[in-house]
Specification:
Elements (H helix, E strand, L loop, with lengths): L1 E8 L3 H12 L5 E3 L13 E2 L9 E2 H14 L3 E3 L3 E5 L5 E5 L4 E9 L3 E3 L5 H5 L5 E2 L2 H4 L7 E5 L3 H10 L5 E5 L9 H9 L3 E4 L2 E7 L8 E6 L5 E5 L2 E4 L3 E3 L30 E3 L11 H21 L3
Parallel strand pairs: 1-2, 1-8, 2-5, 8-19, 10-17, 11-12, 11-17, 12-13
Antiparallel strand pairs: 3-4, 6-7, 7-8, 9-18, 14-15, 15-16
Helix pairs in contact: 1-2, 1-7, 5-6
């Protein structure tokens, strides 16, 4: 059976940064990429807010560079996915595709969170080309433009308010006739002259007029069935995120939304030897740089744990 000191689940900024640090610590980590190798940055185009890249860098290129850096220091990175995890005792048993089982002294969980999407083919095709799930990441590109935000909770209003710093107009589309957001957030949004609301409606299509960039969205009124077209330069989908934590239910402490709870501002979970980094335990910041930072923390925490429990 394959024996490891450090097993890392996930290959986004958190997982690969953990791999760099663990490999440099001579811990020979094994990284399993998961079904979405590279994480959410693989769906982005230009990344301009990751330090060190003055002129920006394409999301997939950034992840490829991080991957090669981790491999250069000795991390083993393999394709595939984890199908079952047993954290009842150490070493942990990690079950993978093709009936492979790995035993590991420590586990770093960096499986991320997946943005909820509308489920449209046009939305998928234009992701990173006018469709986004992160205003903080992409808002700068919409200076002087008009954008649409889908959603009605605090996240949608936060995205909308942030976008008003750049866009000339933000249209928030919500499927109901009232918002789910907190009263404070609603008051702020209603007072902002750049934000307008379209109620009882959904985005039924994203239109690009054959040039690969968002030009408009098609709306459907859920009460009347009437359809209309709204010209815009970008669509931000803000209907929530789902942490990828299904494998750990009943084994690790989680908050009501399913995010893994970590201890004392670090990466330690409710099970000794298991650590969590990145969006899988962060529902507040959700940035590549914060994920990378927590990946560093997880690798250092794992190394300290191994040193403390070495025979």
């Amino acid at each position: 059976m394959d024996q490891r000191k450090v097993f890392i689940m996930g290959s986004g900024p958190a997982g690969l940064t953990a791999a760099v640090y663990a490999a440099r610590g001579n811990l020979n980590p094994l990284v399993v990429e998961g079904h979405e190798a590279g994480g959410q940055l693989m769906l982005t185009t230009m990344v301009e807010n990751f330090p060190g890249f003055r002129d920006g860098i394409m999301g997939p290129q950034l992840m490829d560079d991080m991957r090669e850096q981790a491999k250069r220091f000795g991390a083993e990175i393999i394709q595939g996915a984890v199908t079952k995890v047993d954290l009842s005792g150490r070493p942990f048993n990690i079950h993978m595709d093709e009936n492979r089982v790995v035993q590991t002294d420590t586990l770093i969980i960096a499986t991320g969170a997946s943005a909820r999407l509308l489920g449209l083919e046009s939305e998928r095709k234009l992701m990173g080309h006018g469709v986004s799930t992160c205003a903080t990441c992409d808002g700068f590109f919409y200076r002087g433009k008009e954008v649409v935000v889908v959603g009605g909770g605090d996240s949608a209003l936060e995205e909308g308010m942030f976008l008003t710093k750049y866009a000339t107009r933000v249209t928030l589309v919500h499927r109901r006739d009232s918002l789910r957001a907190s009263k404070v957030m609603q008051d702020r949004a209603f007072k902002n002259e750049k934000i307008k609301f379209i109620w009882d409606s959904t985005v039924s299509e994203v239109l690009d007029v054959k040039d690969g960039e968002v030009k408009a969205v098609q709306l459907k009124n859920l009460k009347s069935g009437e359809e209309s077209v709204l010209n815009c330069d970008g669509l931000f989908v803000a209907i929530g995120h789902d942490p990828n934590t299904a494998l750990f239910k009943g084994q690790l402490e989680m908050d009501p939304a399913g995010y893994i709870v970590t201890r004392n501002g670090g990466t330690r979970t409710s099970v000794e030897g298991a650590f969590a980094a990145g969006d899988v335990q962060d529902h507040v910041y959700r940035q590549a740089i914060t994920a990378a930072g927590s990946g560093c923390m997880a690798a250092i925490d794992a190394e300290h744990f191994l040193n403390a429990h070495s025979s």
